[in-house]
Amino acid sequence: MYDTHCISRGQWRLLHEWFEREARDLPWRTRRTPYRVWISEAMLQQTRVETVIPYYKRFLKALPSLDALSRAEEDTLLQLWSGLGYYSRARNLGKAARVIREEHGGRFPSDPAVVRRLPGFGPYTTAAVLSLSRGVDLAVLDGNVIRVLCRLFDLDEDVSQGSVQRALQALADRSLWHGRAGLCNESLMELGALVCTPSNPVCEVCPLSAGCLSRKAGRQSELPRKKKKAPRPFYRQAVLLLLNGQGGILLRRRPARGMLGGLWELPSLRGEALERRHLPSPEKDLALQLLASVFSGSPPKKDPEFIGTLKHEYSHFGLRLESWKLEIARSVVRESGPNERWVQQEELDEVGMSASDRKILADALQAR
DNA sequence: AAGTCGGGGAT
DNA sequence: ATCCCAGACTT
Predict the structure, then answer these.
(1) Per-domain residue ranges of chain A
(2) Is A335 noted as a catalytic residue in this protein?
(3) If pLDDT is split at 50, 70 and 90, which confidence band does A366 have?
(4) Can you give the distance from the CA of residue A140 to the C1' of nucleotide B7 in angstroms?
(5) Mean predicted lDDT score pLDDT of chain A
(6) Strands (E), chain A
(7) Residue A259, pLDDT score
(8) Among all strands, which nt has the closest C1' to A354 (CA)?
(9) Which of A17, A20, A22, A41 is catalytic?
(10) For A303, left (φ over 0), alpha (ψ -120 to 50), or beta?
(11) Distance CA A240 to C1' C6 in A
């Protein structure tokens, strides 16, 4: 499709020179072992560098080696991941580490086909880890590279189309300077992150501006072209802080797969969809239903106390979280099953939880 | 090809 | 309020 286009050696030289001069000093750029690069790439999927840095440091400190990762409990991984989102990434890290320990002698494989089959390794992560840590000649295609390529060659097809993705991957493959794959990949992504940004690209300082076709046409800011996403539905959801009078809060564990899989959460109940994102103040009905479900039909006589609302947006739907508090007497405290536990407030940091529940708890306990 | 899966920062 | 981010997996 774009077979006439290719990044020239001269352009690579300009870009590499720029990278040597301007590259950020990031924790995963020192000592590029496959393990260290892998953890960074897993965390960086759909996540900004600034967000990742503290998580990365904490993770490497807790689990400094592939062997340590392969022996870590899933709860430990979810705790280290708590707040980062896309928790299947954390679960897949453990799975892949165990496969490497059991089937590859604990050494990170070098064969791209083998790596690609590991849980959590798609085309991007396979190419990134192997090129950056082992110098394997594989070209990455991520959001940054897509943007830079579309602008550099003034490509205005819809990049969400599979055919266009394949053509861009082929262009990246063809452009790769063999023997310098890691540097090519990283400099291209760094350019996308620092200069060729989604809005307001800084073309004045771009090492590739002289040959940039979209800039010549004056439409670099309109690229890459992609179709708009569908509007997301919006629901109300009641959330319950059930306190046992001794500093304990009831948490439940979510199913191992799916949304927020394996994480602990406050008991909650999804309500009906909202037409508008603004609605009159929450009513107690949903909270009472929730309470009934928690106590399986015979809730305490006392009514829960309203704490507040919090809006939370996920990638494909939004929530208005309506949180309620109820302190129950010791005689009323229900037994907790295997997927439930009473957690002391001081222990909350040691539990893998979603960002929204952590915020609700922080707000509620702060106010006490 | 389309939907699922988090969360936060920039605009 | 919308978009975007060093994407992968399921259907």
Answers:
(1) 9-222, 234-366
(2) no
(3) confident
(4) 24
(5) 95
(6) 234-243, 248-253, 264-265, 268-273, 305-313, 318-327, 340-344
(7) 94
(8) B6
(9) A41
(10) beta
(11) 37
